[in-house]
Amino acid sequence: MGAPIGYPTRMDTFLRELTERALDVARSAGATYADARYLAEEWESVDAQDQIVQSVDRGVTAGIGIRVIADGAWGFAGTARLEAGDVEAAARLAVEIARSSVPLLKSPVRLAEEPVVDTTWTSPVIEDPFAVSLEEKIALLLDSTKRMQEVAGLSIAEASMDLWRRTSFLATTDGSRIEQTITQSGAGIRALAINDHEVQQRSYPNSFRGHYANRGFEHIRAMELPSNAARIASEAVELLSAPECPSIDTTLVLDAPQLALQVHESIGHPIELDRVLGMEAAYAGTSFLTPGDRGRVRYGSDQITITADATIEGALGSFGYDDEGVAAQSDVVIENGIFKKFISSRETAPEIGEERSNGTMRASGWDVIPLIRMTNINLMPGSSSLDEMISTTDDGIFMSTNQSWSIDDKRVNFQFGTEIAWEIKNGSLGRMLRNPNYAGKTVDFWSSCDAVGGPEEWGVWGTPNCGKGQPGQTARVAHGTAPARFRGVRVGVHG
Predict the structure, then answer these.
(1) DSSP letter string, 346-384
(2) Predicted local distance difference test score (pLDDT) of residue 470
(3) Cβ–Cβ contacts within 10 Å for residue 334, how many?
């Protein structure tokens, strides 16, 4: 696909010079620190339904965002007009905004030290997704919907594909110069069965438009959407006549994709340090954790070890450097159930006595300020397997594929719904169940885990729609998970 005129999506000398100019002007205007971030993002989205193309969306956006500290306060401004005069005006505006914020300042901003780097980083791509013809992409999606429609009783067959490529250049007054190119791909299918009373759906390989990674078109090919279409459609139809999930306290086994969202909502968000310090309370809520909880709060059972790891090759939450120029890191945030570490920024790390940010500041575009965002928040593998968990469960329910979620603003009380479930009776899977859901409290739930699947069942699931911030930003993050088992969980709750 071609980029519209005036929106360069590749780095050149002129763009670097513009970014450098922003720093010079910010310093001259009185900034004690500044960073300027050029970002261009191109995207392509294709949707199909019932063997008909519904939409093809292509676009690109580019601009420079300038963040400064002046008189101890933050200021930010950006521009899509990539001319020297416009960039200079944005830099001066950022300083003016910082100074206007001083009367509301509780204490001057201080940043953790960070090594100076001058480097380039690129995500792994075998097959450039933007070089694959639109005809081939459409054919893949239409074939998937055709195979779903061949299942008797199916009402609607959907397929979608999303591609992104982000090219950025970050320059800081500390001296760092970082160029990155990140290519991301994803796709999925959804089957809907409808009768007079309700709608049932099944998705593959995950809900909410599928599964995403920092990879090329090879990632989409590997999902084999057409080969799974008939199975997904058949399950959607079968759900219409399946019995309702009972309301009981029982043993719950979750598949890896559902557990990824559980990690996201009840672990990933509570450990964001800006939430803990009250910086995001207006929109995203806060957290039940406090800075003093490190090393002393039991978050889950001994089975629960969680990492924040931006270094996993090909994972959607991976990168070389965050938008403050901090290198990607791998940290243990919960170890054998004990909470150890928050995810932080150069500003928030010193607030709790940390010497260095763990590199989680990212912005969704050039026109917004970076926020603390999840990287790859992972439940590390255990020593069990899905078969073993089921065979050693006398009575329980196995749930798969998220459909809905709700959690309070401190991330304590939650309720999740999944697309499908099966009874577990005497160590075997039994009847299919419709409208399954479960509820609990974060620490109690994670403390009830007695088994986690091993490395052979562990995978990283991309989540493209994590919302946070005012104005709202959407981040693309990921979670490594395997199936896991939880004892004494309330399931089948409604309302």
Answers:
(1) TTHHHHTT-SS--S-EE-SSTTS--EE---BEEE---SB
(2) 84
(3) 24
Higher confidence at residue 20 or residue 9?
20
Question: What local confidence, expressed as pLDDT, does residue 285 receive?
Answer: 86
pLDDT of 4 > 50? The answer is no
* pLDDT for residue 471: 84
Which tokens hold the place of 22? 């922003």
Same domain, yes or no, for 332 and 376? yes
Per the CB < 8 A criterion, the answer to whether 465 and 373 are in contact is no
Q: What is the rounded average pLDDT for all residues in the chain?
A: 95
pLDDT value of residue 2? 37
Q: Give the whole-angstrom CA distance, residue 478 versus residue 219.
A: 15
In a domain, 4, yes or no: no
Domain range for 435 is: 248-491
Cβ atoms of 277 and 109 closer than 8 Å: no
Q: Are residues 257 and 188 in the same domain?
A: no
The 10s digit of each residue's pLDDT in 316-344 is 999 999 999 999 999 999 999 999 999 99
Give the span between the Cα atoms of 380 and 303, in whole angstroms. 9
286: left (phi over 0), alpha (psi -120 to 50) or beta: beta
Q: What's the CA gap between 216 and 197, in Å, rounded?
A: 41
Per the CB < 8 A criterion, the answer to whether 130 and 104 are in contact is no
- Does 172 lie in the same domain as 259? no
Of 196, 216, 239, which closes a domain?
239
Joined tokens for residue 334 = 């919960």
Quote the distance between the C-alpha of residue 202 and its chain's center.
21
Q: Is residue 6 part of a domain?
A: no
Assess whether 62 and 99 both reside in one domain.
Answer: yes
